[in-house]
Amino acid sequence: MKRNWGRVISIIALFILALGCRYTTPTPVAWRGTETAAVQTGTASVPTPTVFSSPTPLAAPTALPTRTRVPIVSDGPWLVFSSGDGKSYYAADRDSDEVRQLELPNSVITADLPGAVSPDRSVLLARAGDPKVEGDFALYSVAAVNLETLKLNGLISSSVQKNLANVNNLQAPFAVQAAVAPAGIAWNPNGSGALFPMAVDGDSTNLFRYNPISHKVDRISSRYQQGFAPQWSPGGQALVFQEADTRDNPYRWRASLVGSIAFENLERVNYLYSPPNDSLEEVYAGWINDSRLLIYTRAETGNHQLRLLNVLGGTPTVLFEGYFDSVSLNHVDGSVALLIKEEAARINKQSPGVYLRRSDSTKFDQFVLGDYEWLGYDRGLGKFVTNSQIDTTVFDANGIKLSLVGASRLSASPDGQWLISWSEAGVNLHTADGKFLQQITNNTVESLFWQTDSKGFYLLMSDGLWHSQFPRLEPVKLTEDVWHENGGLFNWLGSD
Asked: Measured between alpha carbons, how far is 263 from 283 in angstroms, rounded to an integer?
């Protein structure tokens, strides 16, 4: 009898182990154990890129299914995304695909979404309401558990509201503009609080901090200019912000100061530099380390003057003075890439293409020349990605690592196990080194957003938002009401 029970226990243990392996490293159904998934190979020598031509896809469904969903009570994780009109948030439960609209005023500043979730993903902050209606524009918190919503604090005082109607008061409209400036929520990396702008004293906007434990709000800065665009350093040792000195020029909005505040002394402001006269805002491009920040000027004429800024003080270093279309930072080795399209190249009197500055170099060198359309950094790959009209290229400071012909874009799973490419011809699944496995859909996809556990992803298509999960990988439509510009706005609320 004891021997039989031992055998049963052993069988159960092996079964549980098999299940664990299955769900930690899922395998797509369409190619598991079959001979139909022929691998397209190419040269793998470095620095010569591995080039894969467009494969002949496996049979894929033309009509995508819609899953029957049963509403459930959940603490997520939720995929939070912007509505199609950019005025509200939706949350889609990852496991059930249930979609809810968050209980917020229908005028959310959706550009806050990428930075709105706390580091532990338990709370989302939202600025919502009509700034022209007294008491309506406020800060809200949304909890991951059941998406419970709490109104925290008004963001514009009644005096500012009244002054909006006064034609002789030129500062109140600027105070409101600073209070609603995009990307206005910045969580401390340690989760102790979040910064945001408020116009509650006079006709100027200052920075305030929200405590997620006490739900209290306290002032960080006290200045006469319009403060906006707060951001913490990766280690939470300092915060960076910008000001618009509208009192010197009451008829024009212009970024006039970039400053910082050290966490150990919130009373002292470091004046880092004054932007050029054509600056509309100074754009944070990425952190080299906890004290050095890449930042550049956005003007009506384009992006220019890429600087390396020490937020603890010192003179900024201008890395690239000319015009460029986009910049990306490799967080692994500290290299920086610039995309310079035809118009910017003409102004700079140089050739269009992608330029690279290695961490041990003082200048940008020509890396690839030609008509490239997009540049970014993929964390799953740990490398840069750029695309032209004919291919998508993966590269780092050591050279080109991969080139997929016919792919418009690609993205690696967070664990680096899978690679997905897409174009007008559809979406394809690859191994991490670019070998074709199967087609997921032949529909045109605009962008892709991965689950944090790498077991699925979301596809933004022209007709709405779709969800695809391993092992079947059949896209399921969630909603048509989704923001499309710049590939959509997404973030995760709730832990795995």
From this structure: 22
